[in-house]
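Methenyltetrahydrofolate synthase domain-containing protein
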Amino acid sequence: MEPRAVGVSKQDIREQIWDHMESQNLADFPRPVHHRIPNFKGSYLACQNIKDLDVFARTQEVKVDPDKPLEGVRLLALQSNKTLLVPTPRLRTGLFNKITPPPGATKDILRKCATSQGVRNYSVPIGLDSRVLVDLVVVGSVAVSEKGWRIGKGEGYADLEYAMMVSIGAVSKETPVVTIVHDCQVMDIPEELLEEHDIAVDYILTPTRVITTGCERPQPMGITWSKISREMMEKIPVLRSLRAREQQAGKDVTLQGEHQHLPEPGRQQAVPLSAGRRPPDTPGPEANSMEAARGSPAGEGAPLAADVYVGNLPRDARVSDLKRALRELGSVPLRLTWQGPQRRAFLRYPDSAAAQQAVSCLQGLRLGTDTLRVALARQQRDK
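Predicted structure tokens:
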């Protein structure tokens, strides 16, 4: 397809593709395709073409987006005994889930594992500290050019996921990127529409073609914090953990709409607890484990500690599961009181501000299939 006019925008191209696919009945469920990565007819056939790529044959760990038209690639990865990583939906509870079929899984079970239901039922979260090395990235697209320039559905998750993988060292500039689309989704994209955070693709698979783009456009070098809003930080807890790490490494993590504050000469800059750092007088992990705080008694005028209630724990949950989730989200408490039989736990933080930040950070946290209830302990008692 060709873009309709000079001066076209990314959204114009999206609407053109969506309108065309609807009018020509080129998509399967879910419909309409607007505001989605289209589940185009022939997607399973297009996915089979990945078997012809040497990069797929060589790969050990492959990251595939959860979009419906990529289901065939997820199945092929599982059938080939490759490690399959799928981003968590909208990154609400972390970055990756590793799909783990049960031992002796049949073909039918593997097919189920490749679906969105399988991602929920047959996966385990992968923490930021896990040593993940992704050999191949597979993304969905709304439009893509033969030069390798890509347009997604406009929410930016695929670009952000890639940037986050760069941040944790999971991908390098040599990691190939593949997209799978209908033939009508391959079109010219004006170069002026591209931004520095946009990922490019090396291979395009359609039901009839395998296109090697030869794209030399550099991939994003990491998270562009100036493009990240406060609203996005609230919605994606794992971003807060990554921002804390990069802030500690001395990188500029100024968010969209923020002004960069430089410390005055000779004056120590205060860092909020949510950034993953503690005040100088707060005992560190060596003194405070998650099981017991062994610091010296609080001095005169010290802030009162505050507790956070965590409820609706799965019946088979272990304390190590919750500890791991807290570490990944950068919300490690001074003390964790585990009450597994009552399906709850209490987290002790140094003051009410830190506790409130933890409540915000942990909203939407899931262990297994259960979403946890998180609130300040006093509020929970009031309820």
